Amino acid sequence: MAEATTEDMHGRPILDHPILADDRTAAWLGLKVLHLDDGHARTSMELREEMLNGFGIAHGGMIFAFADTTFALACNPHHGSADTITVASGVDVNFLRPGIPGRTLTAIADRRATSGRSGLYDVQILQSVPGGEDELLAEFRGRSRTIPKR
């Protein structure tokens, strides 16, 4: 089984998370974990040709999967819990510009609020711009719920 990348292009270690061990979608995306902290996560991936729609731009489902995985990393503590997991109870995504093949995407997830077993998280998806600053590609707002582990 493929694994999510744990080294950068220079061979430096990249943070890993237990929920990625069996996440085939994250592995297929080529997701790299750049930062993990309680309620926060930062990841990156390259936008490849097979991730494009019929218009030659990023398929919205690829952007969603990337943001959703980063959201999951922010919601679930790295050390994990023996009894519970935190999952999405609902999300909204706003696509602001087309994703261009060959560009690097970065997702930054931040917890905004929690109340009991519910949480609210924002994820910004940025796209690299050759010779310039990253631009905002999409925004994702996720609502989480902590539930018993099966």
Structural commentary:
With 150 residues, the chain is mainly β. 15% of the residues lie in helices and 41% in strands. It has helices at 24-29, 60-75; strands at 32-37, 40-46, 84-95, 104-115, 118-127, 135-148. The chain has a 6-stranded antiparallel sheet with strand order 1-2-4-5-6-3, with helices on one face. The protein is globular. GO terms for molecular function: acyl-CoA hydrolase activity.
Category from helices, strands and their pairing: mainly beta
Overall 3D geometry? globular
Q: How much helix is in the residues? A: 10-25%
Radius of gyration: 15 Å
Count every helix, treating DSSP H or I runs of 4 or more residues as helices.
Answer: 2
Second CATH tier, the architecture: Roll
Number of strands: 6
CATH topology: Thiol Ester Dehydrase, Chain A
| CATH class (first level) name | Alpha Beta
- Report the uncertain regions: none
Strand line-up of the largest beta sheet? 1-2-4-5-6-3
Distance between the termini: 23 Å
Strand content: 35-45%
The average pLDDT score comes to 90
Number of domains: 1
